């Protein structure tokens, strides 16, 4: 018996040691830190520890994003000792974090670095809490790869509830995003030009309160007010029709009409008042050709407008940002920036051949303006890289813009566009650009929660700046956004939704047509929408749409598996429940559409009656 007791005792000791064996993979930080050294041991500190804090230099404790952390003010023997050292040899926003056996030490370059050091500590504490383990003994040296890491919030088509934006600010700050560019259009309650504000716009004072909240979390909000073109939200009003470039088109302003600038500058003033901490004024300027007038060519008038609004920005202590496509179109190289088949040698030769047009107005370009090089899908194209180099060679300021959403319906496609985001981020780091913008266009108005994975990828690659694989990133995202228990690839469902949602977009659209064209045609039921079966010609509909029917049946199987996977995760997730519910609704809507298509097929084959088809209407109402 004594022998068996000894064996059992040794087994218990072995299991205890095994359960407490250190595993650094239990701890994930997003975005990745620059340098870290794990000792291979756990500290005596964890999420439940009462963490007293003290600053050697009486620095103020930064905003703490997690109110559940137990922080109390202490003395020189506190659990957390921190300081800001402006002479510390690290770039702005950088910090050093050391977790010892019984104490945490932090040295930060500035207030932002101190804020980010506590954000990193907060992520480690969450891992401690989620997995019921102590904090690791670790040293971390961390700093950003890009100075400006901004996302675009496009509210022109709809706004979220006000409280959603405050929660969003906290979430963005937790992953070290430090800028937001808000495309207001008519969702700002303009006071100088109130007729332009939509009924559901938010007041200047409210946007200002959001800006103040963001600034306390090292996020500066800047406005985007479309100017020369994309001006329908202004020029649709009778009061401003006289400012149109073409009288029967509300797309663009007449850049020679002085009242154009009276209106635009009033909108700028209100927008800057709403965003008092912003360093930029994004003036748009893309996708617009104005007519020749008064002896000046259209592109010369574009430049005239750009110089006027850039001077206004300068006088108001803002740096103007301008979408760069019209200049590249004038220079004859726009499509070159998007063509991935062109070699570097070929691109160089095109630049030489087009040098005259490229340099024709070079001296007229405002030097205080940032030329925003937007490329949403092919940032690795040699033409895109050449354009960035060309701006720098000609002493023009340049910043890139990638995309987490374009004209994709229901949800972002291409697996959250992670590869494009990663490529432009790392290119920006390699070219030592000042920053990068993640555009999030709202043209098809998917739920903002569906942007989140792309936003986290943007944060990972603009701060971390390393070549983390998409697979590794997605695992880290699932751990931080949902739960550590979901980091395995078998829990991936967002990628699984990509193809069913992509095919859903044009399920009821005729071949060689696209749903985005529907609003631009007069008779969409005749030209774009799939017709219903003819009662007197059974089976013909199935023959015509056999390919779509086959796709629908395959996706029905896929979507049922995806919905089941989401439901399982909803019961086990620690956070991100709201996002899971949104993804579930996306999957259910896609499933409904595919099942409806099959019901129509069955009706055409006389496998069900009309009532089965009409019952889908009630089902649709329940989904909505």
Helix content: 40-55%
- Number-wise, the strands total 19
Structural class: alpha/beta
- Average pLDDT metric: 94
- The 3D shape can be described as globular
Strand order of the largest sheet: 12-9-8-19-18-17-16-15
Subunit arrangement of the protein: single chain
The share of residues in extended strands comes to 15-25%
- Taking the alpha carbons of the first and last residues, their distance comes to 68 Å
Largest sheet: 8 strands, parallel
Number of helices: 20
Low-confidence stretches: 9-19
Q: Cα-atom Rg, whole angstroms?
A: 28 Å
Structure overview:
The protein has 624 residues and is an alpha/beta fold. Helix content is 43%, strand content 15%. The chain has 20 helices and 19 strands. It has an 8-stranded parallel β-sheet. Strands 1-7-5-6-4-2-3 form a 7-stranded mixed β-sheet, covered by helices on one side. Helix 11 links the parallel strand 17 and strand 18 (397-405). Helix 18 (546-572) packs antiparallel against helix 19. The longest helix is centred in the C-terminal third of the chain and has 28 residues, at 577-604. It is globular and about 85 Å long. The chain starts with a helix and ends with a helix.
Offer a concise description of the structure.
With about 625 residues, this protein is of the alpha/beta class. Helix content is about 45%, strand content about 15%.
Chain-wise SSE layout:
Blueprint: H1 2-19, E1 35-42, E2 51-55, E3 71-73, E4 80-84, E5 95-99, E6 104-108, H2 111-131, E7 136-142, E8 148-154, H3 162-174, E9 179-183, E10 188-189, E11 202-203, H4 204-215, E12 220-224, H5 232-235, E13 244-246, E14 249-253, H6 258-274, E15 280-282, H7 298-315, E16 319-323, H8 325-330, H9 344-353, H10 355-359, E17 370-374, H11 382-393, E18 397-405, H12 414-430, E19 435-440, H13 452-464, H14 470-481, H15 494-504, H16 524-527, H17 540-544, H18 546-572, H19 577-604, H20 610-623
Parallel strand pairs: 2-3, 2-4, 4-6, 8-9, 8-19, 9-12, 10-11, 15-16, 16-17, 17-18, 18-19
Antiparallel strand pairs: 1-7, 5-6, 5-7, 13-14
Helix pairs in contact: 4-6, 12-13, 15-18, 15-19, 18-19, 19-20
